[in-house]
Q: What sequence folds into this?
């Protein structure tokens, strides 16, 4: 029994997995784009707060779903059981791209941008892509070796990342040589910004920065006592990240002017140089690049488990269901990382962020609605975890999500249509390959 338990993730490791999945490229890149649409200190902090509430509501709902269905696979498993196998198939198919492969690409590109800025003084596109590909391959090799080794490295990288963010916040508050004269209280124009299409579009970016709040749900079968520990990990991890995000964004606008930050992908680099000076800024930017490896690692660790879960149900993905001799879904890791490299080579960071946010939001909406359907059909269910303030929690999540999805489709039709095209491709594969004729496994 002790040997079996040693191969499982405990609550601490599961919470670390959530924190590591959430904190990634988003916090180090998105605020510059957001300030382009919402040029306000209050607006910036408020949108990160709203994004945190959105993620927290989702985490609470997923916690209940995990207590009902404590199996690996996340949305894939939930949607297959609540709606129809095609919903699960599509969510798993999207996980190959928008769910994990594209976020790995985004975090790797951010890693490359920060590190190339350290080398050249500003980011270089060619070197950025080379560094991004290098880090994807390196971490994929590590996670193809051992779950135990991978989780230990993951815990260390997460600790480094959280420590860096705390150091960045404390240093920014205490030693910034030329702090900005700012107020976090709303001005009259701020409420117009909050209700604008720019705020809704930026919320798509913010939702990407918080994506990963459901990470532990993808590995439920590899977590000790999943019906209790996964909900705790989802809730605790999301709260920790929400607090850190608000503090870090305050330091951004406290140390640097809004015009200096607007439309910049490397906002952390700009702020670091203003806080620590040129040389100190380079050191901190190097540390930020190192911190980004934690989120890359976490997504390479969690994402293939979704593909593996699909492989157990659908023969077309059967190869991905197989483990290597160390119990690792090796082929699933290779497939996801290959797609990540292809995205790195073909896309720009801002386009990736918008595509991810729009596409993933569609499936989280269906998943949250799924809990409401399950409760309606099973009013006497005795599962152990219940969503607080139900039904207000899922309804708030749905209202915010549908609002930002609608505006995103109107204002960013290209990325939205690419997302919908990905769904259409998944539907075509499902029927053309005869996956709709497969008897779905019940366990």
A:
């Amino acid at each position: 029994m002790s040997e079996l338990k040693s191969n499982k993730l405990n609550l601490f490791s599961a919470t670390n997995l959530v924190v590591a999945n959430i904190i990634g490229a988003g916090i180090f890149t998105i605020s510059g784009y957001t300030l382009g649409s919402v040029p306000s200190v209050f607006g910036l902090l408020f949108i990160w707060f709203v994004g945190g509430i959105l993620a927290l509501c989702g985490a609470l709902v997923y916690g209940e779903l995990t207590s009902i269905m404590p199996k690996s696979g996340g949305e894939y498993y939930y949607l297959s059981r609540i709606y129809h196998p095609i919903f699960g198939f599509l969510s798993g198919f999207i996980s190959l791209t928008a769910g994990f492969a594209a976020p790995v690409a985004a975090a790797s590109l951010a890693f490359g941008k920060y590190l190339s800025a350290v080398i050249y003084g500003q980011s270089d596109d060619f070197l950025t892509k080379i560094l991004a590909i290098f880090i994807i391959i390196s971490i994929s090799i590590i996670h193809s070796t051992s779950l135990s080794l991978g989780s230990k490295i993951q815990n260390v990288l997460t600790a480094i990342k959280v420590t860096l963010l705390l150091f960045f916040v404390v240093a920014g508050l205490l030693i910034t040589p030329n702090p900005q004269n700012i107020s976090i209280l709303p001005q009259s124009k701020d409420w117009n910004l909050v209700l604008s299409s720019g705020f809704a579009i930026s919320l798509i970016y913010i939702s990407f920065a918080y994506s990963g709040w459901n990470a532990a749900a993808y590995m439920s079968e590899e977590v000790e006592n999943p019906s209790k520990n996964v909900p705790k990990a989802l809730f605790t991890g999301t709260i920790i990240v929400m607090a850190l995000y608000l503090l870090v964004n305050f330091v951004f606008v406290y140390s640097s002017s809004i015009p200096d930050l607007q439309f910049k992908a490397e906002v952390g680099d700009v702020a670091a140089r203003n806080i620590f000076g040129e040389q100190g800024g380079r050191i901190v930017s190097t540390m930020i690049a190192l911190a980004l490896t934690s989120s890359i690692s976490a997504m390479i660790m969690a994402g293939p488990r979704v593909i593996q879960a699909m492989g157990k149900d659908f023969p077309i993905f059967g190869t991905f269901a197989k483990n290597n001799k160390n119990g690792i879904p090796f082929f699933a890791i290779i497939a996801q990382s290959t797609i990540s490299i292809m995205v790195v080579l073909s896309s720009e960071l801002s386009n990736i962020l918008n595509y991810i946010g729009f596409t993933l939001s569609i499936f989280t909406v269906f998943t949250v609605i799924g809990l409401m359907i399950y409760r309606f059909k099973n009013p006497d269910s005795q599962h152990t975890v219940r969503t607080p303030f139900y039904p207000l929690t899922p309804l708030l999540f749905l209202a915010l999500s549908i609002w930002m999805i609608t505006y995103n489709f109107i204002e960013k039709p290209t990325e939205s249509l690419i997302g919908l095209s990905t769904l259409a491709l998944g539907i075509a594969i499902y029927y053309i390959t005869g996956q709709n004729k497969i008897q779905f496994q019940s366990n």
User: Anything to note?
Assistant: The CA atoms of residues 27 and 235 lie 19 Å apart. DSSP finds 18 helices and no strands in the chain.
